[in-house]
């Protein structure tokens, strides 16, 4: 690869080692002083060309092509540091693993500018990767607001790029625990169904087999415990589509308890689990927890496995599910 600055801004010649790379990723490798989000925005604004033609961020570059990029706008503001307690599961000079509590948004967005994970990270760590942009320092992947569990945070840009490649190449094993209504017919199965935007509800995703915008999605699950009409599943998503686990489990008739979008209820009461129990609320979010993540360390290559303990609300839910089994057994005896 060779490069030079000209009147256009920057010019690069793609070499064989970058063959097939996305345009925005290629530019991020060549211009580490900018984040991939910033570069993607510049490409989308029409400020990049390949062989003289403007292309989308997803365009795959080929060896020998000339890539040019105009000047880009660099936002300077970052998240406001907030002294929010964090449970650190693992930390070294390259990365951090946090046990995200339920109800916490990962990064600031409309309607959620404070109280996010990035606000907390900004107060806990002096330096984090800026690959994801100034408003998402260190964020490599994300969890839904109401999903708890382990999430990785990059301290350096080098670690961020390596982790990003590992997620992209599906070299990261993610294990979730999901408490679902109804029991799957099988003890284990693989769900392979494409996911795309819901045709009528903008905030939802759906199985969309004949939609060009849909993306392939694959999820493996096994039943860890059955509770006479309910179950706890160990879920291993191979791909990482928006709402993938929630959509796939709903597709097989086992929506996640407390999932307002896909199960139709936002809270779980004791009476829903044990009919004779008081009508007290025991869970007020979807019963989904990112239990474990396993990968090779992005810098050392050593095996790394990080597990997040269950939060109190899911421990309470499982206790009620076990009470259900006891009551059902006593009714049959």
Describe this structure as you would to a colleague.
With 333 residues, the protein is α+β, with helices and mostly antiparallel strands. The chain has helices at residues 23-30, 36-44, 117-124, 157-168, 244-251, 260-263, 270-273, 312-332; strands at residues 2-4, 10-13, 48-50, 53-54, 66-69, 88-91, 95-100, 148-154, 173-181, 188-192, 195-197, 205-207, 218-226, 230-237, 268-269, 281-283, 288-296, 303-307. The strands form four sheets. Strands 6, 7, 8, 9, 10, 13, 14, 17 and 18 form a nine-stranded mixed β-sheet that branches. The chain has a five-stranded antiparallel β-sheet with strand order 1-2-5-3-4. Strands 11-12 form a two-stranded antiparallel ribbon. A hairpin with a 5-residue loop joins strand 1 and strand 2. The protein starts with a strand and ends with a helix.
Describe the secondary-structure layout:
Elements (H helix, E strand, L loop, with lengths): L1 E3 L5 E4 L9 H8 L5 H9 L3 E3 L2 E2 L11 E4 L18 E4 L3 E6 L16 H8 L23 E7 L2 H12 L4 E9 L6 E5 L2 E3 L7 E3 L10 E9 L3 E8 L6 H8 L8 H4 L4 E2 H4 L7 E3 L4 E9 L6 E5 L4 H21 L1
Parallel strand pairs: 8-17
Antiparallel strand pairs: 1-2, 2-5, 3-4, 3-5, 6-7, 7-8, 9-14, 9-17, 10-13, 11-12, 13-14, 15-16, 17-18
Helix pairs in contact: 1-2
Labels describing this entry:
single chain; 333 residues; alpha+beta; Structural Genomics Hypothetical 15.5 Kd Protein In mrcA-pckA Intergenic Region, Chain A; Pseudouridine synthase; 3 domains; 9-stranded mixed β-sheet; 5-stranded antiparallel β-sheet; 8 helices; disordered N terminus
């Amino acid at each position: 690869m060779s490069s030079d600055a000209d009147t256009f801004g920057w010019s690069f010649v793609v070499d064989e080692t970058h063959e097939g790379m996305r345009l925005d990723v290629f530019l991020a490798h060549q211009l580490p002083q900018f984040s991939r989000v910033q570069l993607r925005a510049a490409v989308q604004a029409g400020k990049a060309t390949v062989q003289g033609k403007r292309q989308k961020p997803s365009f795959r570059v080929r060896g020998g092509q000339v890539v040019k990029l105009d000047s880009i706008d660099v936002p300077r503001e970052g998240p406001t540091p907030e002294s929010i307690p964090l449970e650190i599961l693992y930390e070294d000079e390259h990365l951090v693993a946090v046990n995200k509590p339920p109800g916490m948004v990962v990064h600031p967005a409309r309607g959620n500018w404070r109280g996010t994970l990035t606000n907390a990270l900004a107060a806990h760590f002096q330096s984090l990767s800026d690959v994801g942009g100034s408003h998402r320092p260190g964020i490599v992947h994300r969890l839904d607001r109401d999903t708890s569990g382990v999430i990785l945070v990059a301290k350096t840009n080098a670690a961020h790029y390596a982790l990003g490649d590992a997620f992209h190449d599906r070299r990261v094993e993610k294990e979730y625990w999901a408490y679902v209504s109804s029991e799957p017919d099988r003890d284990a199965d693989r769900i392979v169904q494409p996911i795309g935007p819901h045709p009528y509800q903008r905030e939802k995703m759906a199985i969309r087999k004949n939609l060009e915008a849909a993306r392939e999605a694959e999820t493996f699950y096994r039943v860890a415990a059955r509770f006479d009409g309910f179950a706890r599943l160990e879920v291993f998503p191979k791909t990482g589509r928006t709402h993938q686990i929630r959509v796939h489990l709903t597709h097989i008739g086992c929506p996640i308890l407390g999932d307002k979008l896909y199960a139709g209820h936002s809270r779980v009461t004791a009476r829903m689990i044990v009919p004779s129990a008081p009508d007290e609320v025991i869970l007020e979010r979807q019963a989904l927890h990112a239990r474990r993540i396993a990968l090779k360390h992005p810098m050392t290559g050593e095996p790394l496995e990080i597990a997040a303990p269950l939060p109190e609300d899911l421990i309470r839910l499982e206790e009620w599910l076990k009470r259900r089994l006891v009551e059902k057994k006593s009714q049959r005896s």
